[in-house]
Predict the structure of Beta-glucosidase.
Amino acid sequence: MPQFQLPLGSKMRDPQFVFGVATSSYQIEGATKEGGRCDSIWDTFCRQPGKVDNGDNGDIACDHYHLWEQDIEMIHSLGVDAYRLSIAWPRILPEEDAVNVQGLAFYERIIDKCHALGMKVYVTLYHWDLPQYLEDRGGWLNRETAYKFAHYAEVVSRYFGNKIDVYTTLNEPFVSAFLGYRWGMHAPGVVGESEGLLASHHLLLAHGLAMPVLRENAPDSLHGIVYNATPFYPESEKDEGAAMYKDAANYHWFMDPVLKGSYPELVLEREYAHKPMVLEGDLEIISAPVDYIGINYYSRGVVRFDENGDIESVPQSESEHTDIGWEIYPQGLTDLLVRIKSRYPNLPPIYITENGAAGNDECIEGKVDDEQRQRYLQQHLLALDKAIESGVNVHGYFAWSLMDNFEWAFGYVQRFGIVHVDYQTQKRTLKQSAIAYRNMLLARSEENKNG
Ligand code: IFM
């Protein structure tokens, strides 16, 4: 029987440590035309030829909109403590000022079911599905969108209040801003240096404006933000500055304003010509205290200076990679957490809100042998334990993802699930990694029962 092993005495064996699985609305729900939902920027983006592999889109995805009940029961069968999901803004406010009660009711059924089964819910308000009508007015390049987000946060938190155990304002603002408005490979597909940095400031402002609203409406819940973070390593000693810069541009840019109330100098200097317009008072708003930060970790980067002094990536061809082409580097998770702890003296608790591997998994006679993912998850759990042992305050871990789903510009080819989805029949099959996760959680719960 596959089972992940946690070291004896590991804090992750304590019942307070939260284990969960994560998904996001556009990636699993489907039913894009049902329940009063309006288009999001991803619906529009997917319609543009060549933007998404195979011309895939989220119209059906995992049909979770209809299969949600069996999905929540399946999550419960894994023995997790919590489910991390996101709410689709276009389902809640399909028109600017018209709240769609059908949308709220859909998520309420999910939340109630999770609670009835004894699981906590971690809800992200923005996992990239901006209503298209806001993009039509400039999207995240328009400062107004930050205020629209605060209004949306008000609607959701007034309705759910403390019923949502943990609120997340944004998932991975780096990706929304830079893949969406700088390099153009994500919706809405904008390309431009200044645009990416401006979008990032408006996203952070949105986070900051929403924080007091969430605290007011849900005083007993936890409130925070989730970052993707990639630690960078120099190819050799002479490249140390390159790695430092990449750390700054990749995650300090998004964490410093929230945790220190300033943007990192390194980036401001290098990007001087593209600096976003920061109004007086913005950084005070953005740096409102958070109860936690979430970290999504997948891989590392290795960099060097080229002959022109530009920074270039150094491919690690000797290392093992997952199907999506990302190097498997568990030590990076330990290093990243240690680096973050040393950079931010008032660091709140951390959750690992995503970690996982993409594989080209096949279901053969009812079995999915995802050997690489099992190794990946086991090694990352041990790397996380090392960080905790060295003093980093981590409260939980969520596997990405519960099930195979719409992997953005890669469509359905890349499978991140610990549960296999047959997109023809919508049949779910636990992969060996899900079974190993479940067995570890069962063993932990037995151990905690027996004291
Ligand atoms: O699928 C995504 C998720 O939506 C955000 N974090 C990274 C995952 C894998 O690419």
User: Anything to note?
Assistant: The longest strand covers residues 120-126. Residues 263 and 345 are 16 Å apart (CA to CA). The chain has a mean pLDDT of 98. Residues 24, 27, 172, 228, 296, 354, 400, 407, 416 surround 5-hydroxymethyl-3,4-dihydroxypiperidine (CB under 6 Å).
